[in-house]
# Entry
Amino acid sequence: MARKPSSGPASDPELLILSSLADGPKHGYAIMVDVEQSIGVTLGPGTLYTALTRLVEQKLVAPDPVSGRQRPYRLTRKGADVLEERLNAMRRVAAVGLRRLRTA
Amino acid sequence: MTRRNLVVAVLLRCYPARWRREYGEELRHILESHPITTGIAFDVAGNGVRQRARAASPATILGLVSLVLVASQFVIAPSGFWPAAVRPSGMTFPTLRITIVASELYVYVGIACGYWTEGRSPGSMSRAGLAAMRMALIACSPVMMAGLLIVAGLVDPSIAGLAGRTFVPSPAAMILSTLGALPPFWIWGSGGGWLRQWVNRRRESRQQKLT
# Structure
């Protein structure tokens, strides 16, 4: 479960969490499962909560009221803007790199 | 308590108390619902240490680094530890000067502690000074502890390099040694705090000019 994410911007735990929360609120365990199933990166629970703590401090993610022993987290407006900006930047880098590879 | 619960409790203790109050129950739930492999244990413990480092005050961080430097003299010069670590103080009450802490380098460390403290949570200059005093207290604790151990009879001074030396520090002086270091640290820390306040004011006025 605690496989270290591969290197590169797509393995950044904060970006993975923001992406996971883009389709709606999830609690910690649901984020871990979603990231593993949809992106193929396994986040350890310590890594997940360290990144979640930072995102909450930066107000990119906000906790919702506790349900049972788990608390759902949702993307804030600011978090959605930051995610979009970072994904667009990655897309621009990928587009340039792929275009140059094809023409080389 | 089962072995698993014990492991979970130990792993959660790696995190600072404030963090545990906020996120501890959620992390406990995940750990209790899944097998704890070595990888997960390292991931949780490692991130716990990171959270502790983030939550620690500048005084604690710099104090612990300094403590290691002071204590390392026990290892580097075990037979000549006392002359290397402490020297007589000019003060009338029984105290010593702890060599590293009395060095010029520590003027800068004291200023850095005050500067960092003020930067992290702006307050008053005297609070930055108190943070530097706390740092000095942590740094000097090995010498104080050695004095207490000698008083308690748990360390024999003759095997710790004291025998045959012209300068033999008394345990009372070792216990009180930190006190002599505190006032200058208050001044340096306050100076660092004042410096940070000055830097902040300059930044603000520059931003106001730009807008």
Summary: The first strand of chain A starts at residue 61 and ends at 63. Chain A has four helices and two strands. Strands of chain A lie at 61-63, 73-75.
